[in-house]
């Protein structure tokens, strides 16, 4: 998931953003600090921490830098409909001017939502794979059932009917075919 | 006919009996054909593929019925942010647009409004269809998983019954090699 890339953070847009300059505001400061994982309820939240950032507690998220991620290995995106629908194109008015903090927040939100969408797609793909393999297994079992029932009806039943019955007291007799036996149900 | 020594448990596929064993003729020894002519491997394979196709169609119908039933019980709802546009509003817009002929500004605005409305509806429809697709996949997966478990139990039961019958045949002096040969003819793996 960390290798996920999106066009918003690659190419020209990334170069433009990186030249906007970093701000030495509290967001950068907080990101680079070592945050304690647990805090008692009595402690005040850090004065400079204005936003809820649960990812700061996770070691995996430490790589998210204040500026948009630089090194992103491109992976093959999930297959999706690539048809172009002209009516769905939105006409963005002038590019909104956001402060660096706001832009950072927007970028994080975008990344998070993209990751979430990607994970949802992967989950759907997993379900679909499981469904297909279950179906194949089920069909194999059906075939086996058909063969077993054929074998039983066409062969075993007839063979048993044509052979002499066993007496209950003698589980393994070798009866001559002409002898009569009494059955005890 | 002597079947009293064989214990046949109640099989849950009783309703599918006509599919699993569609042999209308009697199975008494006097009237059955000689085993060799009716049990050729080619005939058996043909019969198996026919029955398999029949069963696959049956389960596909069952699956579709199940999915439809689940969709009815769990309807998909997509909320609207704004109330749906009334038909009268659209008609009024179109009427005023054609009647006024005032200038390009108003028509541009109208076009933009129409495009926006159309886009919103398309988006909403797309979201709704995607939700339905996801739900259908979930229900289909649930159905097939359930069927897989049931058929596994059924297979075990059938194997037990057959093993019991084979044991009785062997006890009566039936040659084991003949049993193996017949199992191969019917496409079954060797007994353990």
From TrEMBL, chain A:
<feature type="region of interest" description="Disordered">
    <location>
        <begin position="53"/>
        <end position="106"/>
    </location>
</feature>
<protein>
    <recommendedName>
        <fullName>Protein Mabiki</fullName>
    </recommendedName>
</protein>
<feature type="compositionally biased region" description="Basic and acidic residues">
    <location>
        <begin position="55"/>
        <end position="70"/>
    </location>
</feature>
<feature type="region of interest" description="Disordered">
    <location>
        <begin position="162"/>
        <end position="185"/>
    </location>
</feature>
<feature type="region of interest" description="Disordered">
    <location>
        <begin position="1"/>
        <end position="28"/>
    </location>
</feature>
<feature type="compositionally biased region" description="Basic residues">
    <location>
        <begin position="1"/>
        <end position="17"/>
    </location>
</feature>
Automatic annotation (TrEMBL), chain B:
<feature type="region of interest" description="Disordered">
    <location>
        <begin position="87"/>
        <end position="124"/>
    </location>
</feature>
<protein>
    <recommendedName>
        <fullName>Protein sisterless A</fullName>
    </recommendedName>
</protein>
<feature type="compositionally biased region" description="Basic and acidic residues">
    <location>
        <begin position="105"/>
        <end position="124"/>
    </location>
</feature>
């Amino acid at each position: 998931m960390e290798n996920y890339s999106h066009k918003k953070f690659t190419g020209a847009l990334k170069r433009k953003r990186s030249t906007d300059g970093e701000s030495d505001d509290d967001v950068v400061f907080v990101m680079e600090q070592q945050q304690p994982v647990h805090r008692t309820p009595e402690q005040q939240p850090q004065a400079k921490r204005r936003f809820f950032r649960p990812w700061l507690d996770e070691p995996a998220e430490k790589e998210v830098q204040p500026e948009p991620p630089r090194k992103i290995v491109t992976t093959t995106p999930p297959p999706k409909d690539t048809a172009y629908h002209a009516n769905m194109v939105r006409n963005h008015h002038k590019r909104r001017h956001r402060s660096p903090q706001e832009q950072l927040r927007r970028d994080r939100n975008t990344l998070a939502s993209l990751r979430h969408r990607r994970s949802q797609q992967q989950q759907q793909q997993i379900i679909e794979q499981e469904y297909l393999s279950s179906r194949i297994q089920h069909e194999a079992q059906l075939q086996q059932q058909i063969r077993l029932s054929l074998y039983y009806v066409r062969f075993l039943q007839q063979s048993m009917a044509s052979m002499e019955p066993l007496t209950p007291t003698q589980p393994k007799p070798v009866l001559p075919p002409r002898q009569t036996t009494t059955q005890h149900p | 006919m002597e079947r009293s020594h064989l214990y046949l448990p109640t099989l849950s596929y009783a309703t599918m009996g006509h599919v699993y064993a569609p042999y209308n003729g009697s199975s008494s020894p006097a009237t059955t054909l000689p085993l060799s002519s009716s049990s050729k491997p080619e005939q058996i394979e043909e019969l198996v593929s026919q029955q398999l196709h029949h069963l696959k169609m049956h389960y596909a119908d069952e699956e579709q019925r199940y999915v439809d039933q689940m969709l009815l019980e769990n309807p998909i709802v997509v909320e609207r942010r704004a109330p749906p546009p009334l038909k009268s509003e659209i008609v009024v817009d179109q009427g005023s647009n054609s009647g006024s002929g005032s200038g390009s500004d108003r028509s541009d605005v109208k076009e933009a409004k129409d495009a926006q409305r159309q886009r919103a509806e398309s988006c909403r429809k797309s979201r709704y269809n995607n939700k339905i697709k996801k739900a259908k996949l979930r229900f289909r997966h649930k159905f097939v998983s359930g069927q897989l478990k049931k058929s596994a139990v059924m297979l075990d039961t059938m194997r037990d019954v057959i093993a019991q019958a084979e044991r009785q045949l062997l006890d009566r002096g039936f040659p084991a090699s003949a049993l193996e040969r017949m199992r191969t003819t019917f496409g079954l793996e060797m007994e353990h």
